[in-house]
Structures
1.
Amino acid sequence: MKNIYSIIKKAKKYLINNDIIAIPTETVYGLAGNAYSDKSVKKIFLLKKRPFFNPLIVHYVRINDLKKDCYLNDNFKKLYKKFCPGPLTFVLRKKKNSRLSNYVNANQKTVAIRFPNHNIAKKLLQNLDFPLAAPSANMSSKLSAVTASDVREEFKKKISFIIDGGKSEIGVESTIIDLVGKPIILRPGGLEIEKIEKILKIKVKIKLKSKIIRSPGQLAFHYSPGIPVRVNVKTPKKNEAFIQFSKGVNKKNYFYLSQKGNVREAAKNLFSILRLIKKKGYSSVAVSRIPNQGLGLAINDRLKKASNR
Ligand code: TXA
Ligand code: MG
């Protein structure tokens, strides 16, 4: 890889020019643009074919910059101290005088923010005087990208610059917690809910249908590999690709998420294996039962949404 500083310099040029680039993060790759610029943010929505009512996450590296854009409460401070930078996104109240584009948060009173924990993403943010709006770098409703080549596959020539930062360490998107009122999980993801509960010392509810989404039907289907997905399957149909949780039966159409049945490893491989199966030309995929604990919650959430069609 080229010198990181020359990469950051080039990325900065694109971003200052209101162009969109793809960046690596520890969860999945992001499609990044200047969060203060309406022009950049609009471009992100158009590129992804994402409906404008579905808000984006804003990425920061400095807490002092975040303070200009939203109100930080005690729960935020506790979680920030323990888990940031890391795979946790907070929904907070946006300040009226914030410079964030109103497109970023779909004109809501709240905004979703996070501190990514990837060397390149951090270095890039340190060199910018604006935060980055960045949804996952995939076409709306499709599989998220965990490598630079996944991003290229999703967008072809439509993105001029993709920073290659290797395979995303976590492999599923961040956990989203709404802290505006009583804490509530809006999306299980790369940080285990059990760990959050330990810090907040309360049981945190999970609410999968966010209020802000005005037509939930449209978004219930998500993370799709482009072929039908069946979940909790014991025996696959003939010619169907079959994803086992851990390494078991060894057949041509059988795949597995984790060597030893570890949910963290399984999460890291989830999107790449679905992408691989699609590429191999299978017309449907079945998945065995995945334990619903730790990152298993994130895996099951993605698979459930991919199977809703
Ligand atoms: O790991 C991640 O979070 C990745 C990387 C690139 O940071 N980003 C990501 O962004 O997953 P995206 O756009 O694919 O998912 C953002 C989710 C959407 O489901 C959106 O509805 C929700 O965050 N969201 C954004 N702003 C919100 C808000 N103000 N209130 C509630 N939900 C919000
Ligand atoms: Mg996404």
2.
Amino acid sequence: MTNKNKADLFSFEFYPPKTEQGVVNLQKVHRDLARLNPDFFSVTFGAGGSTRDKTYDTVVNIQQSGVSAAPHLSCVASTKENIREILNNYREHGVSKIVALRGDLPSGMMSAGEFRFANELVEFIRAETGNHFQIHVAGYPEVHPQADNAVEDFNNFKRKVDAGADAVITQYFYNAEAYFYFRDKCEKSGIDIPIVPGIMPITNYAQLFRFSDMCGADIPRWMRKTLECFGDDKASIMAFGEDVVTKLCQELLDNGAPGLHFYTMNQSGPTLAVWDNLQF
Ligand code: FAD
């Protein structure tokens, strides 16, 4: 197991566990991945604040273990007072990185919030806390699913970078070209912060298809068709996923990606398998 170059931005994302067993599992996953010396672990935040306390507990546990934790914070349906309180609590626990998002409202929930888009959250964090937080924002190489068109989506993306973001983590993708095009467009637009590719290991194709349809990530036809052939054959899905995702990560790193952010789904095995295959 290698320690990557310290200059590289490697991070691992968890979701806050809902059960006691989930907490115990995550402690093991955290230990397994901490050995890779990541830049940080990030912890998701349920839409509309639904996991607020569990996100907080998970972040504090990680932070106390000695690795940096970056809480996700989504602003949809939140008030300024809510967000201020969350930021202050994190600050008191020595948290200095944050993933700032708009988030998505659960269906049927109406927004009574004071923020409409992530750029307003980034502005608010900067206004309230100055340069205390290193702010990461989300990027969409394959275009955000609700965007009217790619040009407007990019302009909106640039607005939140200009509001004070320090780094970008992208939505996951399997077309490396989409990432390179997006990165080059950032460069041409004067965006010079790191654009870290988000990587989703493949472990379960029904779940992957469902997520990808929701978040607008394209699963290339050849991948869909191959995964469909495996049916319930978990070992073949895992082997194919490891191969495809390793090649994707290697191509990204070989062509200048500043690091990788793994959506671990609270499992260490698939991420470690890819990591061990990579040539640094
Ligand atoms: P925004 O940047 O606000 O963009 C949302 C949409 O609005 C886009 O279509 C954009 O083009 C448009 N837009 C943006 N600004 C403006 C503007 N000023 N005027 C008009 N239109 C505008 N979701 C969660 O609920 N919890 C999480 O923890 C979480 N973590 C994530 C981590 C990463 C790395 C990524 C990539 C996504 C994550 N998501 C999470 C999903 C995310 O919340 C959704 O993709 C959400 O729909 C958009 O959030 P955003 O911050 O990108 O929004």
